[in-house]
Every structure is written in structure tokens, then in C-alpha cells.
Amino acid sequence: MFPIALMLTAGLLVPVSPGAADLSIGMTALPGSVLPGARYEVSVTNLGPDPVTSARVVVALDPRVTSGAAAPCVLDTAADTMTCDFGPVQAGGTAAMAGWVYYTYGGPPTLSATATRTASTPVDPGPANDAATVTCWYFGSPGLPPPPLPPLWC
Fold first, then answer.
1. pLDDT, tens digit, for every residue of 120-129?
2. Other CB atoms within 10 Å distance of the CB of residue 141
3. Tens-digit pLDDT profile for residues 60-117
4. Cα 120 to Cα 128: distance, rounded to the nearest angstrom
5. Number of other CB atoms surrounding residue 136 within 10 Å
6. Where is the signal peptide (predicted)?
7. Which end of the chain has fewer CB atoms < 10 Å from its terminal CB, N or C?
8. Whole-number Cα distances in Å, 35 to 47, 86, 138
9. Which residue ranges form the domains of the chain, and what is each CATH number?
10. How far apart are CA 133 and CA 25, in angstroms?
């Protein structure tokens, strides 16, 4: 439920609803060609009706993450997350950020990551499209020299 504000217009108090912007989160992954890792691109699409002044998307990474180069996002290997803070996005617009994340292989042959909108201004009235997941698979051992095929497929 949205709080209602009142605005004085021509001597009358008129209810004013605060803005709302339905954000849709997208994510893609591109495997590394030599190192065991992936480039995750996170996107925020504003389905409107109002512009967004800010949005935060947190990517929950596989616990085998070891390091990365996530700027402008922030990588936290202790929490296995990559946090991306977006600035303004007009209604109908899309903004994207990307970061490289490197993994240690072992365990199940899949690496999954889920991007979730955790905050935005104004509020998001449609949470059904606030998350996206990608899964990559690895084959063989990551020894050197690299295998003839990329060890990771997304």
C-alpha cells in the first residue's frame, strides 16, 4: 500500500500518490577464455510509469568465487555477492553494468548466479520481474595449458 500525500491546489487539498516504477532485472553471462570465470552483465529496465532515481541490484554468486574485477559494481568474496548501484533510469530506458568474477572449479559442474533488485526509488509495484538467474557449466579440469575448448559454457 502506498502512503497518500496531500497537495494544496487552488485552496483545496488534493490526494497525491507517490511515484512508482516497475523495474525488470536481466542478467547474462559470458565465459572467460583462459581463466575460470565469467563476465556477468546486469541490466535494469524501467517499465514505468515514472523515472527511477536509483536502484540496487545484488548478485548472489556461487560460493566458489575467489576474486574478480567488478567495477563499477562491488565484489564481496566473503559474502559471495556483487552489488551494483544504478543511477537514474527514465521510464522505458535500460541501464547495464558488468563485472568479471573468477571461480575455483570443483564440486557440481554448474555455476549459478542470481541478480535481485533489493532497493529502488521510487517503489517497485511489480516484484515478479525483480530477479534473473544464469547458469554456466564447466567441463574437464582447469589445468594449464588451457583445454582446447573453453572450460566454461554459459
1. 999 999 999 9
2. 9
3. 999 999 999 999 999 999 999 999 999 999 999 999 999 999 988 777 888 999 999 9
4. 15
5. 22
6. 1-20
7. N
8. 37, 28, 12
9. 15-140 (2.60.40.1510)
10. 10
